[in-house]
Each structure stands twice: as structure tokens, then as C-alpha cells.
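note to self — DONT lose this again. spent like an hour looking for the file last time. sequence + predicted structure for the chain T wanted, 437 res
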Amino acid sequence: MQQRALRLPLSLTMAALSWLAIGSIAASAAPSPQPFDDDSFQPSSVSFGGADPLATDRTVEHWAGETTNPLDGVTYRYNMVGVDPSTDGSTTVGVDIIPLDVTVDGVTFSGSDSVPGVLASPLFNNFSYSRSMFGTIRDPATGVCCVRRCTGSTIPISAGNTGQLLDVTMRSEFNKVGSAYHLYLDTPTVYDPVAIDVPGNHGIILASPVGVHAADVDMGWFQTRVHNLMGKLHLDPTRLAIFLTTDVVLFRGNEPMNCCVLGGHGTSPATGNGNGPVSGNGNQPVQTFVWSSWLTPGFTGPRAWINKDISGLSHEITEWAVDPFNNNTAQSWSAANAPQYGCSDELETGDPTINTGFSVGTPGANVYDNNPFPQFPRNPFSDGMFHVQDEAFLPWFMRLPEENSLSQPTQSGSGGRYTLMGDQNPLPWFHARAVAC
């Protein structure tokens, strides 16, 4: 893809600025926004419901597989999008993007504004994943995960792996880099934006220490709005629907500071529109979808560095591919960096690795970040690249040994990797099998 040039020193202005040093310089666009900082930020995702489709149902193309966990002796069965990687086949899934323009306290957070950036991102364009300029590490001073790694050299991610992010991830997960196996996302169809007005008792506006604002919306209320839209838009259930917002996060339990849900995926009965009956036995349409936001750099602080631009979308779209119907399970797992998920048996690849990830592209690849700072020619917290979350792989969930050959070998060649980042994931529990809880 063609990329606009951006000088490295300017694109990395963030590295020279303290997180708190430029507080309150952003334009005040909201009435009395609620202050919000890293200490309040606990990113998570949410299920929008699941389904157990029959083989005859009309839905996204998928295949069924199974893996035996050598520790508990259970054979776990699962459905994943596309074709079985062992066949070396290829699948292209159609995509519909529905921008949501969300208004809270009279301020509109326009999902439409993020469409160009998403279309230009690694989700739909080919990038190299052999190396990355930046990844996450534990803070050397505190041990807290995860801040940006700055060593002056690039880091190895997935050698020889070039393509769309989802395709690259799936080929690494099944050790198919360089093969004919692919899982592509087609060029999206972009729908007209849908306006969502949030009542005062269901949303507030948050302000980070540097003045970047986000809409904080009640999770249950927002989920209902999305499911209602599914019944009105007459979407094709064989395609992935993406509900796209900008700087919108969700809170749980009627407590706005119980934040922040950054995305979710699920299923919903599709309306007819020539797609088959919505009731009956064996040929119902089952729509799969994801929701997430493009996050403006500066909303999250240094300890949540990776959570910007398409990070949430990368989390949800990969989870959709590995668990399209929200019903795949594994032996229960937990991760010390993700206490918000507790002890889970869900095969959700982005949940355990939350807050870890890496940059994609070079400075200038991403020229789409919103700039709420009138004093600067561009957002000083933007490095001009895209940011994606690391993903846990099937061998981690299924407790396969380190010498497994199911996934791409680690960068050190010690066996199959447990996450896309492999040896570069900063947390030691992703360099070994998951621990039961």
C-alpha cells in the first residue's frame, strides 16, 4: 500500500513527553468530563452472545477440528472460520462495516471518522510481520506490564510472514507460513453511519490526564442497541459484520469507572432478506459480528501503551476467527496479567494476552489518528504506526508441550510458539503451557 512519509523524530514525539506533562492541553469538547487515568484502566472484552449452528445453517464458512489436551486427557472440539489449515485451502470472507456515531452529553464520537484508518490498516492490507519497531515489555522500574519497548533496534515477530493481520496470525498459529493456506478478509462494504444517542443515565465522558476524551457507555444498554440493529440491517450472514466506533468504551455493573470494555464479538439471528427463514429447523441464518473502537492515542497511558488505533479490533477479529460462535472451550486457564477474566474455560485468544502487542508498519503507515491537541501539528502520542494485540495460540490453551509442531516455531527455534509474538511476548507464562485454575 502507498504510505505517506513521516519523519521519525516527529512521529515519536511521544517518547520525549511525560504522560502528565501536557495534561489539559487538549481542546475541551465535553461538559465536565470525568477524570480517568492508568490506575482506573482495566481493559477487557465481552461476549455479545453465542450459538450452536447446524451444518445446514446459513452462516460464515467454517471448519470443525479437535485437539486432545495431554494433561487432562480431554479431546476438545471447536469451530473456526475458513477451511481446515491441513488442506492448504484458502478462504475469503466478505465484510460489512457499520459505523456507529455515538452521542453522549451532546458530544458525538463519530465511527465514520475511523473508517479510512481501518480500511488502510493491516486488517485489510498486506504488511510484513518479520520484524516490528516496537513491542510491549514489563516496566523495568516496576515490573508492571506493559510499556513500550525502546532499544533502538527492531524485534523479530514472524519470519517470512506477510499479509493481512488475520491471515498472518492464522498461518502462524497452524505453522502454515509460506503454504497455500489463507484466511483473507475481502474489501469491506461500508454502510451509512447509524446514529446512537445515549441517555444521560447510560453514559458519561471520560478525560485522560492529557485531555483525550472517550464516551463511556453502559455495556448492557449498548449490547441491546447492537442486537436491535442486527434485526434492522438485513445483513448477509455469510459475511462478517463490524460495528465500528471511535473512542467509545463500555462499563459494567452500572458503574462508569468499572472500565473499560474495548470490544466484543458474538452471534445473532439474521433477518430474512433472501437469506433463508429466521425460524425453522436446520437452515436458519446465523450472523457473526464484532464491535470495537478506534482509540485515539493519549487516552490510555504508558502502562497500556498498545491500546490505540486498531488494537481492539485486532483482538476481536482474531477471536471471531478462532471462536466464531462463542462456544469453543478449553481446560480452564488464568493469566496473571488478566485478572479481570478470572478462571476461564473460553477459547478466546486475545483475553489472556490483553495489554501485550506490537506495532505494525513504519512511521507514516498510519496518518489517521485524531489530533485533539491544537498546539501540535499532529497527535504527539501517535507514532505513525498501527498497533495490534498479541494472541494466544491453540497449543497454549490445549497444553501442548513446548516441542509441539502445531504452531510456527519460536524465534529461538525451541518448539512451537504459544502466542503470535512467541519469544517476544514479555510475560513468562506465555512461554509455557497454560496453568490450570
